[in-house]
Amino acid sequence: MTAILHTPILKFGSGERKSCPGKLSRDAVGIKALKNKVRYTAVILLTLVAVGVIVGSMLWNRVEQQSDWQPFVLTPTAYPETTGSNLDGHFYLDKIQPIFNRRCIVCHGCLDSPCLLKLTCYEGLLRGARKVNPDATHLFAEKPVRLHDQPSLAAWREQGFCSVVEQQGPPEERPAKSILFRMLVAGTEQNQPPFDVQPLESVYKSVNEHICPCEQGIDAYLKQRPTAGMPFGLPALSPEENQRFSEWISAGSPGPTADVMAEVEKLAQPEVIARWEAFLNQQAPLSPLVSRFIFEHAFLATLHFEESQGEYFRLVRSTTPPIQVKNDEDGKQFVVPSPVHEIKTARPYDTPYLSGVDQIYYRLKKVTEARAQKSMFVWQLSDARLKRLKELFFQVDPVSGKSLTPGYSSHNPFEVFQAIPARSRALFLVENSHLIVSGMIRGPVCVGNLATYAIKDNFWVFFVDPAHDPSVLKPELGLQSWNDFMDYGIKGNAVYNEAYNRMLDKYKPTGYQIDDVWDGNQENSNAWLTILRNETNATVLRGRQGGIPPTFWMIDYSGFERLYYSLVVNYEYYGSVEQKLATWEFMSRLRQEFEDNFLRLLPVDDRQKYRDLWTRGIGQELLFRMPFPGEEAGQGIDMQGLDPISGVLSKIQRRFTEAVSGPHDLLNPGRKPDVKLTDPVNDFAGWEAAVSTLTMRTQLKFTQFLPSNTFIRLTKREESRVYSLVANRSYAFNNVVFDENGARQPDLDTLSVYQGLVGDFPNLIIDLKLEQASAFLTELNAVSTTEEWTAWKNKYGTLRNTAAFWTLLDWLTDWNFQNRQPDAGYFDLKYYMLLDSRY
Q1: What is the 3-state secondary structure (H, E, C) of 126-176?
Q2: Residues 177 and 317 in one domain
Q3: What is the C-alpha to C-alpha distance for residues 556 and 472, in angstroms, rounded to an integer?
Q4: FRET pair for 550, CA 20 to 30 Å: which of 363, 676, 718, 803?
Q5: Is the dihedral of CA 489, 490, 492, 494 positive or negative?
Q6: So where does this one cross the membrane (predicted)?
Q7: In this predicted structure, what is the pLDDT of residue 684?
Q8: Closest CA to 733 of 635, 825, 614
Q9: What secondary structure letter does DSSP report for 396?
Q10: Which residues are CB-contacts of 647 (< 8 A; sequence separation ≥ 6)?
Q11: Residue 546: left (phi > 0), alpha (psi -120 to 50), or beta?
Q12: Interior/surface letters 165-184, b for 16+ CB within 10 angstroms, e for the rest
């Protein structure tokens, strides 16, 4: 998913092993599939050679640099370094960061921001910009560039980052020497609405080859690219905002003072944090392993506590002990503070026991930077959740004979966490599935259409009940080595699949039944997920949303863990082309495994038919055709006259109840209301009925022109409501890398409509009056050519070069923060008015 970005590349043949217990099934790895893989391997190898020729002279230096990177302990005073000024210590947080939040982190809010300039906090501003993106195509691994991957500004400068603000010299000369301010001035000169957007196209076509002012110098850069001012391709800042920046940069671009940051970092409810830190660092024998398990599954998440509203945290490893809340002689509570000295490692399973570190603690580090929604996902916690975690992990006995202190030599979760009962681990994953899946689709790197192409555009996810899951009932699946679980190669995956099927034959000889689907105890909406792939990014929603999709997954415990560790824990955004391809192919195979799991709920005679329907054309030649258990017995679920998919979904819905699935979806119904688009729309209910006549329908002409995400503010007199139009694109296959366009089936594209804001990258925002709604939908339905789409977009869309743009976006941003807490963040505009995949 979006954890694999830009150029994920298959690693053919990476699964060769010294020993291979078990025999490869003829169906698992067909001769035809292997021949095709050889053919595609040749294409990939040629690609690698071409890349090597292009970047060869630079790569060896980067490899040498990579070997120099060492993990370290980040102390509160090590970074950033600030300068003094006569401005108030609150000036940056009160006057400057809010402008960055609303006008700059729409593009500069993620790890792979243009020029790697990250403006969500003062540390990112001070670090500055660099041309080379470690997430771009390169044959060898580079250094990670997360915001705190270096201990000082000096270390960042050695890694090629340049300052974007001038802090030296006479105050009156600083703005003219500041890259940031000069880019804002250029934007003011060039981007006064209505400005020409034509020059943007060439830049977007080479978006990953951008040239940054650091190398060329700001004067020469702007002379050659006068339209490159900031905000890029968007209306310029106001005179008041520019004046504020001028005043600040003239004063030396100071950040918040230590006293101000101490105030910001102060805990509002320290007793809540103390409770959780005590849980994570208790003396129980199993505790260190449990905390390590939780950390590895939540290290990318933003934590929010119901008992401490408005505060956000990250789970980190630290050299300092937890805070404590004690009582004085009078019985009054007081806090024993303890600063967090975070231990920084490249990957979450790397050993934290660095030189001089004898004891580690799991701590909650308060998040003080602005929240970019595209990279943020929230794990909502509470005292009730704390109680449940205690039940899962500490009201069970450790597995006898398994190590409680496995060390850090192995990175295999099935091996490392053996002492924790498999049922507890599996229940943690399914009960928090939104957290786990969000980690896969919202990582430190934010966009990349090749990565997301490994999955369908729209599907529902269910889970095998841990009580009935063969990989929980028999965690080792009869295999001789835990390495078989995490071998990404073709043969390794086949060995795992064959072992899983043997256990499935043993425990579920006729395949899965409806009772084998985890129902969330009829209250946990994590049991039913809706996944949307929006070309370069993805979204996960709880419950059944957006109408019945064309495909479905059912994930078992071991498959879920393999998927997560492949896409998140083991994934290196700074890794080589080969590593990224290996991850992509593994993800593609896992997708088929989970689709096959769902098909095991269907009658035997229908399973192969739907497998072939879900992957068509050349993609079928690469399928791993494991047999479906129970085929010989002719078993399956009685559909009672319904078509197979509808029958299974009806049974799941009845078992789950609306507490899990959510209410009936009136915007995307299977049975459409008797409404004509030409009928007047008088209220919001009328709008929802009218738009629902266009949703989840194939063979409509306009759907192929829709961008991934469109936000609509619909207004009736003084009342406004918000809706999202989401394009669901259809592909014949998703298992041939680099052939996304060849797989397109535009006639099968559909539209889903949602209440509220869905997606993090709006491609178009529309301000619509209710009295316009009928014409809006009628004209949309009539679109059948690119020219007609452009005319419709220009008529109804709020274009990026118009004076109304920021006003409407600010309104939607405010709505987002007012209505979607604690999950709200700032949106990204990288692909605004563009089809993502073209660029």
Answers
A1: HHCECCCCCCCCCCCCCCCCCCCCCCCHHHHHHCCCECCCCCCCCHHHHHH
A2: no
A3: 9
A4: 676
A5: positive
A6: 40-60
A7: 97
A8: 614
A9: S
A10: 637, 639, 640
A11: left
A12: bbbeeeeeebbebbbbbbbb
Same domain, 324 and 242: no
In sequence order, what are the residues at sequence separation of 6 or more whose Cβ sits closer than 8 angstroms to the Cβ of residue 144? 69, 134, 346, 572, 573, 574
How many Å apart are CA 28 and CA 623, to the nearest integer? 9
Q: Prior bond to 8 cis, omega within 30? A: no
Neighbours of 666 (CB within 10 A): 13
User: 390 near 314, Cβ under 8 Å?
Assistant: no
**Pairing label, strands 458-463, 529-534:** antiparallel
Residues 572 and 538 both lie in one domain: yes
pLDDT tens, residue by residue, 354-385:
999 999 999 999 999 999 998 899 999 999 99
**Same domain for 808 and 703?**
yes
61, part of any domain: no
How far, in Å, CA of 232 to CA of 190, rounded?
10
The Cα 827–Cα 823 span in angstroms is 12
Q: Is residue 277 located within the same domain as residue 233?
A: no
129-161 burial code (b ≥16 CB/10 A, e <16): bbbbbbbbbbbbbbbbbebebbbebebbeebbb
How many other C-beta atoms lie within 10 A of the C-beta of residue 57?
A: 8
DSSP 568: I
Tell whether 779 and 829 lie within a shared domain.
yes
- State residue 51 phi and psi, 5-degree precision: -60, -40
Does residue 111 form part of some domain?
yes
Following DSSP, what letter does each residue of 81-104 receive, concatenated?
-----SS-TTHIIIIIHHHIIIII
**Number of Cα atoms under 13 Å in the Cβ half of residue 698:** 10
Burial-class residue 545 by CB neighbours within 10 Å (0-12, 13-18, 19+): buried
Question: In whole angstroms, what is the distance from residue 699 CA to residue 781 CA?
Answer: 11
At 267-307, the pLDDT tens digits run 999 999 999 999 999 999 999 999 999 999 999 999 999 99
Q: Report d(CA 228, CA 200) in Å as an integer.
A: 9
Same domain? For 343 and 436 the reply is yes
Cβ count near 807 (within 10 Å): 12
Joined tokens for residue 141: 């691994």
Kindly report the backbone phi and psi dihedral angles of residue 752, in degrees, each rounded to the nearest multiple of 5, phi listed first.
-115, 145
Tokens 């905390």 — which residue? 291
- Domain hosting residue 393, numbered range: 270-622
Q: Where are the beta strands (DSSP E) in 352-436?
A: 361-366, 378-381
* Collapsed DSSP state (helix, strand, coil) of residue 596: helix
CA atoms within 13 A on the CB side of 826: 23
Residue type at 76?
A: P
The answer to whether residue 232 is domain-embedded is yes
Number of alpha carbons in the 13 Å side-chain half-sphere of residue 105: 29
Find out whether 368 and 821 touch, Cβ atoms under 8 Å. Answer: no
Collapse the DSSP code of 727 into the 3-class scheme (helix H, G, I; strand E, B; otherwise coil) and give the result. strand
Instruction: Give the rounded distance of the alpha carbon of 551 from its chain centre.
Output: 21
Last residue of a domain, one of 256, 288, 304: 256
pLDDT digits (tens, 9 = 90+) for 631-687: 544 454 554 556 899 999 999 999 999 999 999 999 999 999 999 999 999 999 999
DSSP code per residue over 741-756: GGGB-GGG-EEEEEES
- Read off the tokens for 670: 């299977």
DSSP-derived secondary structure letter, 367: P
Average pLDDT over residues 440-461: 73
Helices (H), 193-238: 200-205, 213-216, 218-224
In a domain, 499, yes or no: yes
The rounded distance, in Å, linking the Cα atoms of 702 and 434 is: 32
